[in-house]
Amino acid sequence: MKILVIKFRHIGDVLLSSVLAKNLKEIYPGSTVDYLVNAESIDMLTLNPNIDNVYGYDRKKAKKSGFLGRISYELSLFKNIIKNRYDIVINTTEGERGGYIAMLSGAKTKVGIAAKKGIFSKFSPYTHEFRLTLFRHIVESNLDTLRILGYEPTSKAVELFFAPSDDEKIDAILGDVQDFVHFHPASRWFFKCLSPAQNGEIIDFIEAMGTKVVLTAAPDAKEKKMIDEILFCCKSSPINLSGKLTLKQLAALSSRAKLFFGADTAAMHIAASQNTPCIAVFGPSGVFNWGAWDNDANISGYTQKNDIQRMGRHTMFQVSWDCAPCGRDGCEGSKVSRCLLEYPLQKIKDEIASKLRG
Question: pTM for the whole thing?
Fold first, then answer.
């Protein structure tokens, strides 16, 4: 049995789809389980013992190739997928690219999300369709691809694996530092972030408790600038590793942390995959969809529309305003989220203190 899982989304989305791999291996003993994802997300799945091959779609290469070049690149990709002769193809997200791959794969069983618009709303490329539910965690939505086939998943753990060399890198960087909070305040979408002043205040609070803060961010000029602004607001001196770690090394760092604090971003999901307690502050996104997943729980604890919500070891903060979550890129598309910039920090500090002491 040969199975292909398609996940054309960002880093955190791909990590949450890893929950399928172990279940597929249990349902179909001896099967080959492959993934096709955006190239930037490959590290979320490599070294996973339940995944045999990970193929990457290079969006940057496709865009730079021009229209004809992109078509040629994608046809070559489709051709390789067809050559693998998959028995089952599971497309876990909307989007026509995944639908075309499923349709052309020749697989007997093709699972995907029912399209609301576009060409596939008129005829489906899938043999089995399911629909996304608004108030449902993405982990459960991924597992719905198995339920539509008649199987109830036995594992709901989101797992990310790294190499001993990644651990050694963190050893070399941290030295004697053992008790620390992994602090990742940035997102590629800044409307999902607290202000530099708010982040600086929380960092100073943690360090005043006697626990070191280790700052991380992507190797992106805008994110590194945000880190500089945060450090300018700090009275303390956290360890700054922004732009210096790979995704695997980020996981190795999180695995040692007493606590993760940050924005609603992939780094939070990476920390949760290492069973590190997470505290995050949400703005436009729904905690019920994207809250940090606790691997020891079988049922999502995120059952409210907003406000403070918990799932096992994790705590997610969000205002209790009627408009939250709005799903927009800031208030009225302004790229600025008042629900974050006006969030009262004392509740967050109390939760941090409780977890560090407990």
Answer: 0.95
Q: Could you tell me if 139 and 301 are in contact, meaning their C-beta atoms sit under 8 angstroms apart? A: no
Over residues 144-200, the pLDDT tens digits come to: 999 999 999 999 999 999 999 999 999 999 999 989 999 999 998 899 999 999 999
* Pairwise CA distance, residues 318 & 274, whole Å: 23
Q: Distance between the two ends of the chain, CA-based, in angstroms?
A: 47
